[in-house]
Amino acid sequence: MATVASNPNITLTSEGAVSVSYHALVNSPLSMTSSIERAFGSHPDSLGIIIVRDLPASYVPARERLLKLAYRFANLDPKVRERYADPKSRYSFGWSHGKEIMNGKPDTMKGSYYANPVIDEPNVPRELREAYPEYYGKNIWPSDTPEVQDFEQAFKALGRFVFGVGCQLAVACQPFASSYLSDSSLSLADLIGKSQTVKARLLHYFPPSPENPLPAEDEAIDSWCGFHLDHSLLTGLCSAMYLRREPSGEPSVVQSPSPSSGLYIRTRGGALTKVSIPANCLAFQTGEALELATAGKLRATPHCVRVGAAKDAENISRETFALFMQPNVDQQLSATENFGQFSKRIFDEHYKDESAGGAAM
Q1: Is 118 a residue whose pLDDT tops 90?
Q2: pLDDT digit string (tens) for 43-66?
Q3: How would DSSP label each residue in 277-321?
Q4: Residue 205: helix, strand or coil by DSSP?
Q5: Rounded to 5 degrees, what are φ and ψ at 241?
Q6: Nearest CA to 97 among 236, 330, 106, 28?
Q7: CB–CB of 325/234 below 8 Å?
Q8: Cα–Cα 20 to 30 A to 345, which of 58, 145, 322, 335?
Q9: What is the model's pTM?
Q10: Are 81 and 111 in contact (CB under 8 A)?
Q11: DSSP letter, residue 146
C-alpha cells in the first residue's frame, strides 16, 4: 500500500484505489471522511471504488466455497441449469445465461445466479410483488441437485457477510454523502439496511471457445463486456477466482491467465485504470441510484471486465460475486422518480422483452 503524501490518513493501493481497514470501519466509521471523499468524490483521480482490507478470517473460506460452487453449477447439464431460471422476473432470480444484452447482442460469455441473500421472500403487498418481480420475487435454490447441495447456505453466508460490511461502509459514508443528498434527512445505512431489494449476483465467465472467442489484444478494452453502471446505491465486489479444469474433472485455483484480465474503471477525470481486488479484501463502488439521489454530485462508477488472451485460456474460467445494495422501490430518489420507477426505466432502456435479465440489480 502507498500513502497519499498530502494526507497521511489516506492509504492507496499501487493502482490508486483508496484502501481502508475493516477494523477502522467498525470501530471509528465517522473518522474516515477523508478516505471516503477521496474514493467517491469529484477529484479527477477518484475511482469511485474503495478497498476494505483486514477482514475477519471467515471471509476467505466463504468466498472460496461459493466461487467453486459457481463453477460447479455452471458446469451442470444446461437442462438442469434451466430448471432454476425464472422468466417472470426477467431472469432476475435464479439462473440467467444469454439473456443479458451487452454491446448489442446476447451475452453468452457468462452465466449468473441471482438471489437476495438477506431475505428469501420479501414481506411486501401483493401489488408491489406483482409490479416489481425483479426485486420482490422469491429466491430459487438448487436444493434438489446433489452436485451443489450446499449452494443456498454458501450463497447466503457470503452475501450476508458482504452486506454487513456494506452497511458499515454506509455509516462511514454518511457525513460525506449527507451534504450531497437531495434530501439531507436520508440515511444511507437505513436505505440499505432496511431494504428488501438487496440482490446478489454470482457470476461464472465461461472459458473462451470458437463460438465465444476472447477479444484481440488490439481491440478496445470494453469490446468484450461494455462499460456500464450499476444502478444500486453501493455495490460490493469480491476478488475474482480463476479455475482451471483438470483431467480429473475437478478445478484447481490458478493465477489470472493474463495481466490484462480484470476490472477496469474510468476515474472521475476520465482516465482508464485497472483495479485489482486482493483475494482477502472486498471492494465497494458507487451506483446510479446514489448519483440520482445526489442530483449527479456523486457519480456512478463506469466499469467493465476484460479477460485477456493467454496460454491454456480455453481451460480457465472466471468466478466472482457482486452484491447490489439499494433502497426499497417506493423510496424517492429525486423530485420525479422513486427507485422503482428509476429501475423500470433502466430495464426498459436496456432490455427489449421479458426474456432479458438485468445487468445490475
Answers
A1: yes
A2: 888 999 999 999 999 999 999 999
A3: --TT-EEEEE-HHHHHHTTTSS----EEEE----TTGGGEEEEEE
A4: strand
A5: -120, 135
A6: 106
A7: yes
A8: 322
A9: 0.91
A10: yes
A11: G
